[in-house]
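Subject: sequence -> structure tokens, single chain

Hey, anyone have a minute? Need the predicted structure for the following. Not urgent.
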Amino acid sequence: MSVKIYSIESLRKENRNKNIETEIPYEVAGETRRVPKKMVNGELEVPVLSKPAGELMTTDPGMEEMMEKVVLDVELGRERVPTVYEPIYDRLEDPNFPRILDAKWALEGMCIFLKRLEGNDVKMGAIAAHEGPIARIESWAAGFEYTEEMVLYDHGFEVEVLNRAFGEAYNALLNHIHLFPIIDFNYTSDNQTSSEGEDGEPYALQIKKTLRQALKDCVNARRPANTLLASKEHAGDIEDALETMLYDGTEYASIGAIDNIIYYDGWQTKVGKKTYTYEGCPSDKAYLIRPNRGFKELVKVPLRIDGQPGPIRRLVEEQIVGRTHRGVFAAVEENVQEVNIDEVTNE
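Reply:
Had a minute. Here:
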């Protein structure tokens, strides 16, 4: 099967062969600095502190060493929760983005070559604006503290756990803000395909028939799709449905129109006594998507990590804060078909 699978598990496996050399920005007392990030065969090189954290925090060079480790620990956390939304979205990064962007900014050039006849004007190209919601740049932030006790007793392992959890939470946020608009949209009949197939047929065959009808619906609506978003619960049946299948003496051809499958089941964490949940795809639904044209990832400020001395009244040695300013443009109605993949039964 030539389809590309995007899931947290598959990308983790793929990352084991990744080689990366780049620089990651961070800030100390308002000054931007950079730390080299080097990954060889999926292993990220994370430095070991030369001294206990408490000693390092007392000098500028020590603080720089400490922050470099924080940043790379965060990157390690991000590798543990890979982002899966990239096949759907075009990424646009511009520090000059305004807070609110009208849908008219999502432009597409349109042009055609016609046979040139003597005396006729040349057909001029045009710019078309996608319909859709207004995009808004939002601010997102998280932080944690190194307490005097953590520093005094050199609880280095706690420092690393916090750093990596920070990175995991950031990538989980990115998956959520890009995929939830698709999952949460209120679809009408024009963007819905019901389950196909007959009671008693293999579930994979029912999914095959349903996907074939959904792809036809997308073509008829002039928004041909090539990316499928679904829960991993039915991954085996979905992937079987794309292959050639023989059932009851009839051969059902493979489905070649789907290039990407994204499996997304959300994310959950507990901070203090409160549990935070990002909803994933429902098990009875899938989404056929025409990517890129109506989906824009808008980055005004990527993740920036800042270290500052903490308030002494609470015996906090250092506060680490990360923030990003970004938004999404998701013209869902123009580009997504909701597909009901409930198993057909007589019940």
